[in-house]
Amino acid sequence: MSKLITDNHFSDADAFYASLTDAHRELTPEDSERLNARLILLLANHIGDKQVLFEALDIAAQLEQ
Amino acid sequence: MQKTYSNPIYPYRKSPDQDAASAVHHPVIIIGAGPCGMAAALDLAKQGQASVILDDNNTVSVGSRAICFSKRTLEIMDRYGCATPMVEKGVTWQKGKVFFKEEQVYEFDLLPESGHKLPAFINLQQYYFEEYMVNLIDKEPLIDLRWKNKLVELDSQGDGNQLKVETEDGVYDLSCDYLLVADGANSKIRSGLGLESKGQVFQDRFLIADVVMKADFPTERWFWFDPEFHRNQSVLLHKQADNVWRIDFQLGWDADPEEEKKEENIRPRIEAMLGKDVEFELEWASVYTFQCRKMDDYIHNRVVFMGDAAHQVSPFGARGANGGVQSVENLAWKLARILKGEASPMLLESYNSERQHGATENILNSTRATDFITPKNDISRVFRDETLRLAKHYPFARSLVNSGRLSMPCDYRNSTLNSIDSGFQGGLEVGFVCQDAPIKIDGRNSWLLEQLGNRFVLLVNPETLADDELTKLAAISDDLEVIDSRTLEDPEGLFAKRYALLGGHAYLVRPDQYIAAKFKQANVSDVSAAMKRALGFNLEKAQ
Ligand SMILES: Cc1cc2nc3c(=O)[nH]c(=O)nc-3n(C[C@H](O)[C@H](O)[C@H](O)COP(=O)(O)OP(=O)(O)OC[C@H]3O[C@@H](n4cnc5c(N)ncnc54)[C@H](O)[C@@H]3O)c2cc1C
């Protein structure tokens, strides 16, 4: 049974997307990589649940899809 | 260099076996008097089984090797009778600090759970650990330890082994039913039989230095990631007995081991780290590369591999000797009962399956720590570094920082020796090792683990059982002792809390203190069946 939410769950999808890209706008590729890493670690801990995290990793790793 | 310790020299003594007309036979011969070979002999003696140990050297471990011994290992040593000097000599620390680049990111306090006889772990040089085992072996009539006896030839057959052993008085023959092999990571016996230990070599080198500090230094474990004084590498500092400090410098793959070992090259590294004014003397230094690997099958005919010869790990998380001793205690009670005809010969196979599982878990943990310390590519380094930065302010990230996880005993929850849970809820689970608790017997202070081990124990609360049930249970086998939980006073309530033994409930505890079965309502037929199963008789049917 899948646990990862893949339907819309944002309270404000547009605002999130804009702040994500804004946060990266002025950054070098190296700093962007750092920011992404920090964001993943923070969000992963917030989710916590191993199954949800592994399902997300699994989908993320399917680069050709 | 070494001033705080001088290795004892044990005498070679000629054995009457060397003058015998033909090969003298022994049920069990053990190769190697390292931690694992000696543990095997001590454990077998506890089960009433005599053995001969052959070691090609005449002393204990030389120089800087294992220092961290875990609670489970100490519990095993306590069952043998040599934990007390280890704990007295060893250093217990609780506080640790983690540094990243120029600053401290956090500190921790391990605050061990109370109500256990032995500490969560100790730091003690391997030579002391081994010396205390030798001292005990010297008093044990069931063990014949022969120094300067080198196994040089082995003929292994399905029903036993023929050995040629070299001494200063020449070569002599021996034979045995079972040969237990603990001749170390580069086991010649393993390769001589054409067997392999497979896994991974880490492309990295480590300088391991033991130094004596003149000044007082806190008893804490300090771990640096990428410090200013040693860019792009990691450094570990912690304390051992005799005011000796262990320093591990990661050097990278390109370092030249011979150059790095020289005192003139080590001094500047340590001075950069501790400051120029800290006075110290160098005790010992060596350069290592580390590996994680194991054999696919520890058993070949009647040759059984143990310790580093069977499974080897990198030292992050201190699982080499700790995991090795736990494998040995898994093997000894089984082998002793097979030799006495009380267990199925197939029980031996469960040593392999239970400890393959143990080694896999130890290798997994050591590999994860090694990968955190030495990121394998750029993105892994980004994640590692950001984890460390976040750890300074956000506690969650500290749980990701991995400079070695404390060695914990593995569980055998899927072992074929277990009997299915019978509805007894709570307490400890089948396949797990028993936990200690302070108790009193006849008003005298004691520990629960001191009551368990070396034979099967049925730990039972007979409140709801028929009057004669305890007598009947006790008659199941000479190898089973029934302990009525009501005879154990529980001053802190920890026994009740950890074991949850309500009326009728019982645990069947193996000779290695693992739980083989739980019963909601103990009775003769279920307990006998579970004991048969734990002795491997069901494996015969399965075949
Ligand atoms: C730097 C370092 C740090 C470590 N730190 C830790 C730690 O903190 N905690 C931990 O648990 N582990 C640690 N380890 C691992 C630990 O040292 C080993 O796991 C442990 O010594 C293995 O014990 P053993 O009995 O299997 O083999 P060994 O200790 O290697 O003993 C093998 C013995 O067999 C003898 N022998 C060999 N061939 C023959 C022959 N043909 N005939 C007769 N005798 C023979 C040898 O003389 C030797 O005495 C560390 C290792 C290193 C290198």
TrEMBL record, chain A:
What is this protein called in UniProt? DUF2783 domain-containing protein
**Lineage of the native species?**
Bacteria, Pseudomonadati, Pseudomonadota, Gammaproteobacteria, Cellvibrionales
Give the organism, scientific name.
Pseudoteredinibacter isoporae
The protein's matches in InterPro entries, at most eight in alphabetical order, are given as: DUF2783
At the top level, the lineage of the source is: Bacteria
Automatic annotation (TrEMBL), chain B:
- What SUPFAM superfamilies does UniProt report for this protein, alphabetically? FAD/NAD(P)-binding domain
Report whether Transferase shows up as a keyword of the record.
no
The UniProt record lists the FAD-binding domain at 27-362
Pfam families listed in its UniProt record: FAD_binding_3 (PF01494)
Record keyword Transmembrane present: no
UniProt keywords, alphabetically: FAD, Flavoprotein, Oxidoreductase
Q: Which InterPro entries match?
A: FAD-bd (IPR002938), FAD/NAD-bd_sf (IPR036188), RIFMO-like (IPR050641)
GO terms (molecular function) for this protein are:
3-(3-hydroxyphenyl)propionate hydroxylase activity; FAD binding
**Swiss-Prot/TrEMBL cofactor(s):** FAD
Q: What is its EC number?
A: 1.14.13.127
**What is the designated name of this protein?**
3-(3-hydroxy-phenyl)propionate hydroxylase
Q: Which organism is it from?
A: Pseudoteredinibacter isoporae
